[in-house]
Amino acid sequence: MYKCFRLKKFVGLALICSVIVFSFIGLAVSGFRYVAVVNVEQAEETNNEVQQTVKKKEEIFIPVIMYHSLLKDTSRQGDYVLDPDVFIADMEYLKQNGYTTIFTSDILNFIDNDTQLPDKPVLVTFDDGYYNVMYYAYPYLKENNMKAVMSVVGNYTGKAADEDEHNPQYSNLTWDEITELAESGVFEIGNHTYDMHSLDGRKGSKKLSSESYEDYRKVLFDDVGSLQGLLQDKVGITPDVFAYPFGFISDDSVSILSDIGFKVLFTCYEKPNYITNDNEYPLVLNRYNRPCGISTEKFMEKVLDNS
Question: pTM of the predicted model, to two decimals?
Fold first, then answer.
């Protein structure tokens, strides 16, 4: 009896211990499952944050081409004067290779509002405001639903308005013509200074070595701001774009032009541009000048190289 009782007692204790052990295992497994679920959820949240960061920081390559004057007279063609047929060949090349012309406002919408840009965006720009651009390029661009940016010189436009004869060989755009281009949906208008497109005394809008910051600030506000005012009064627009005359830049000019209201500054540095949708203003964009004497294929190979 004593042995039987001890055996029963031992069996009972064994059963109790088994229950305790298995309960502990169950709790451990349950706890592990809970921790695993939490870790999976945390991993998913982290992954989403990483994806959002990658999306936010994604760089977009935007080549910018700089044109000036378009003339058929071969004797006048050079670094800043191009045959209109070559310009059209350039545009055809862009279309055939899947590029889409955009405005700078499209870039601003991408940065400010996450608006989608086309797969292969490109900016086509014209400096100085020559009438021959309207005469030769505008009809082609309009027919092919393409866009371009025209940065005008206020003093040139003022003189053009007084000319009796309007000729693509030498004339500049009038205020009425700038208005037509601005309202066409084909051209976006930029500021190229009122009367600083010169190398006499000052190199374009560059700060003089003897000039104080305050004096330089006043010079830019007076000149560039006056053209902004004229464009508001005569065309009904306030450009976000400023193009440096001859590409001469002073470090102080960036903050001053930003205070005037510009969000995009065009340089003449021949370098690629990469933007993200968290870029800060002003956005400084480099441009490739389009000279004559080089084939469309060779020129575009340089401009469109984002390596």
Answer: 0.81
